[in-house]
Amino acid sequence: MIAKRSFLKRLMISSASVIGIGNFAKASSSPTAKQKHGDFIHVVYFWFNEPDNESQQKAFIKNTKEFLKKIDVIVSYYIGVPANTPRDVVDNSYTFSLLVTFKNKEDQDIYQEHEAHKKYVADTASLWKKVQVYDSLKV
Fold it and tell me: Distances from the Cα of 2 to the Cαs of 5, 6, 12, 19, 74, in angstroms?
């Protein structure tokens, strides 16, 4: 019985530690902390000329991360690949997706005209055969 109580006590202390860490993580992402996502969402889908070319994929990811870090009006960004979720309503034909959020449309306009963005498009345009953009506002 004593061994069982000792085990339960250690379990409760461990659980409290984990809960405390979880609460700390939640506190740092609370609305009072720096906003993690903007209200203006800019999503770009890229279809590559050579979608299986690994060196082009690596170069694209590197160039994309580098240019995004140069534009301070960006709130958050994500670079993705198709999730291979074969359903009739899902388009998995693209090579990469890029989701960028901004506080507002004005910041997105700054991004569009930023020299880093223009250079990025010029430097990577030869990789893709099609680009599709979707912009939206949070409701």
Answer: 5, 6, 15, 26, 57
Q: Rounded to 5 degrees, what are φ and ψ at 7?
A: -60, -45
Cα–Cα distance, 66 to 64 (Å, whole number): 5
Beta-bridge partner residues of 98: 44, 79
Identity of the residue numbered 79: I
Q: Is the dihedral of CA 70, 133, 110, 128 positive or negative?
A: positive
Bridge partners (DSSP) of residue 128 are 48
Contacts of 68 (CB under 8 A, 6+ apart): 74, 77, 100
List pLDDT tens digits, range 113-124: 999 999 999 999
User: Which pLDDT tens digit goes with each residue over 57-70?
Assistant: 999 999 999 999 99
Q: Are 37 and 71 in contact (CB under 8 A)?
A: no
Residue 8 neighbours by CB distance under 10 Å: 10
